[in-house]
Amino acid sequence: MRLPDKLTSRANAQIRSMLLDLRQRLEYGFLWAIVLFVRAMPLDMAAEVSARIWRFIAPKTRRHRRALKNLERAMPEKTPEEREAIALGMWDNLGRVMAETILLDRILKEPWRIELENPALLERYRDKIGAAVIVSLHMGNWEVGIWPALAINARAAGVYRIVDNPYWDRFLRKLRAPLYPAGLFATKSGDGFNTVMRIAGFVRQGGTLGMLADLVEVRGVPVPFFGHVMWATTAPAWLARRAGASLWAGRVIRVGKESRFKIAMKELKVPRTDRPDEDIGELTASIHRQFETWIREHPDQWMWSNKRWRDAEMPGGTQY
How far apart are CA 71 and CA 141, in angstroms? Predict the structure, then answer.
């Protein structure tokens, strides 16, 4: 007896859902085994072991080739050997970040591992920073980039992109929760107006929002970055401009090869003319000028392996 098409379709959907859930649970089980392996070691040892594994495996991948291509595009004055050394340093740093993310709780229990480069600047805002956006980049260990906001008692929240595996996503949220006492705003590709308004509402009510903004965003605006056009997200500038908030650029660098970090913060002037779109574009470019300055100082601590630029001046075209 043949089942009706509607029932067959529903049964197929249920099977696909079950298989997807099984795959995600298996992935989570594998990742949990890595977590147990990392947590069985002291912090600095775990970071060192992870760094060595990444330095061995990552150079054999296509992301290494992309990193070298990006480096050649951004820093043509460097020799091939210098660019290779920068790329290897990047993998070393990313390996350490992986272990340190799993062990964030240990880092936060040892505050001597984190140093503010300009504490006097932040001290002026203790208990009174108010509505603020802190924008950072994938440098050093960016996971601890929001720490200065906690140090001055800001009501801090963060923005992060949802991980496709819901089990791993919940685990990462739990790891990051101590850094964001006001919560985490989860976003995904194609997020709608309501999500944006919830985030803007939090900032308008005096919240301090931390977010990363150094990835390509095809719906953004073109800004100069290492002498080429990069399409950058306008979200930090839009939030600061529309919500009447201050805007801070921050960066984290690793000190030596240990899990120790220096954090620098710099307040950027938010233009407020009668041309808001131009203000947002100008502020977005200002953010990326600051990012470029910091990256040039410590190029081996930035993530070169992502897509950064497009050949064409408009979205659509080969990405590098």
Answer: 20
- Amino acid identity of 45? M
Identity of residue 101: T
Q: What is the dihedral of CA 100, 105, 111, 112, to 10 degrees?
A: -40
Classify residue 237 by burial, with Cβ atoms within 10 Å: 0-12, 13-18, 19+. buried
Q: Residue 202: is its pLDDT beyond 80?
A: yes
* Separation of alpha carbons 73 and 303, rounded Å: 15
Q: How far apart are CA 29 and CA 23, in angstroms?
A: 10
pLDDT tens digit sequence for 231-267? 999 999 999 999 999 999 999 999 988 899 999 999 9
**Span 170-196, pLDDT tens digits:** 999 999 999 999 999 988 765 656 778
CA distance 253 to 295: 10
Could you tell me the residue ranges of all domains in the chain? Answer: 5-101, 112-301
- Strands 184-187 and 156-161, sheet pairing: parallel
Q: Are 210 and 184 in contact (CB under 8 A)?
A: no
Token digits for 93? 């740093």
